[in-house]
Amino acid sequence: MVLFFSLALTASAGLVYGAYELGAFTLEHARGRGLVLLLLVAGAMGFGGLVILWSIVPRIDRFTPPGPELTAKEQPVLFQEIHRIAEMTGQQPPTHVYLVPDVNAFVTERGGWMGLGSQRVMGLGLGLVNILGVSELRAVIAHEFGHFHGGDTKLGPWIYKTRGAIIRTVQNLYAAGEASAEVGTVAFVLKAVGKPFEWFAKGYLRITQAISRAQEYSADGVAVRTQGAAALVEGLKKTHRGGLAFSAFVDSELGPLLENKRHAPLGEGFRRFLGAPSVAERLGQLEKEELSEGKQDPYDTHPPLRERIRHAESLDAPWVAQDMRPAVELLADVPQLEAKLYSEWTQGATLTPIDWAESASVFVPDWRAALLDAQRGLAHGTTPLTLPTETPALRELAAKVTGQDTDHVPEDTLQQWATGLYLRVLSAVLVDHGFTPSNNPGEAIAFTRGELRIEPSSLVRSYLRGELGREAWSASWQEAGLADAPLTPADVQQRRAG
Length: 498
Hints:
Layout: H1 2-29, H2 32-56, E1 69-70, H3 76-88, E2 96-100, E3 105-110, E4 119-125, H4 126-131, H5 134-149, H6 152-179, H7 184-227, H8 229-259, E5 262-263, H9 266-275, H10 277-293, H11 305-314, H12 334-345, E6 352-353, H13 364-374, H14 391-402, H15 411-432, E7 436-438, E8 446-449, E9 452-454, H16 456-465, H17 470-479, H18 489-497
Parallel strand pairs: 2-4, 5-6
Antiparallel strand pairs: 1-2, 3-4, 7-8, 8-9
Helix pairs in contact: 1-2, 2-6, 2-7, 3-5, 5-7, 5-8, 6-7, 7-8, 8-9, 8-10, 8-11, 13-15, 14-15, 15-16
């Protein structure tokens, strides 16, 4: 850190002084084109020195709460656990605890200046609390207190401030060089000045990330010594799986509901998503690969999962009785907490609560809108059995529906577009014929009517890929009684009028 700031200040002063001397020499001795060239070099040197100086000026630490704050008054059971673990690890509990929309937990120190006079802050992910048991959450919290124990949060602000200054210096010099691209001499000087800082940045990141990995091992040791190895190991595995799945859950399940001004129970939905057969199988495969083949990158902040597990299991650990209760039971009034989280997530939008089983009904207007869009391009008399599947026909349909030239659209992109359109069109047809959509997070939306059940998602994808033959496609829609269901405007209007 001291080395970088010394280098930066020396470089800045040297460039500004060099620019002054070169400029003075040039004005006194140079003439013609040489005068212009040397003045450009001097100007670039001076500008580069000022860019470096501006980049290393410390920025004010403005802390934005990452989520709704939890208090001991509202969450007495959780705070009892936090205070008990703080005492076990010999640490002061955090001043502020926040609920965050993630499968993660963290501690930091915010406020003050460069870590001095700061307050301890903890973040607990609602996704994390919903997938861990009580003992596993205790181990995770003990791990976080291990960062306090090791002084990591005191060192952190210095590392992060220095890292930010290095990155700003490199970025600002690069941006200045790009902005001066038309003046080749200036751009060359600025990029040349930036090169040593790029090399320094890479070395600094490798060193500090190695320190971060060592800090993780040390914090794991605190968790093992206070909560036992079994709880930490299982907590690490569940956190790894949950972290891989949470973004997919938000993008595919939760996000679309929020866009439609609805919200369903986050914890319940995420647990069901993780338990969906296809999701569970994929996560199992990824975990197996990580445990057998996981490799460490020099720029990783955390060691590979298998190395952390191996390290935890190698430590002397006390026997600790396992509390198998779901960790979410430590929270009071979970629906209210989720509502607060959703409110912050959506900037205070008014959301209507809905059950996951009914959530598919939210998309009916979108399906019907897609049917109207498709009707601009479908031939009169089109039914599910006569939907176009060949590439030329799909190009023609896409051009009519979107109003854009599709001649150069790649075939796989065209197929993806058609898959999305057909899925929504056929979903609208199913609803219009009395089928009820139902949704289980992590699984395709299914439609039922009496004993009949159909999943158009798998049918459409397989059919357009050529994996499902026309005969099987026809049989599915005949069984649903929709083989001759009209899709085109006049037919639809007549059917709805009848």
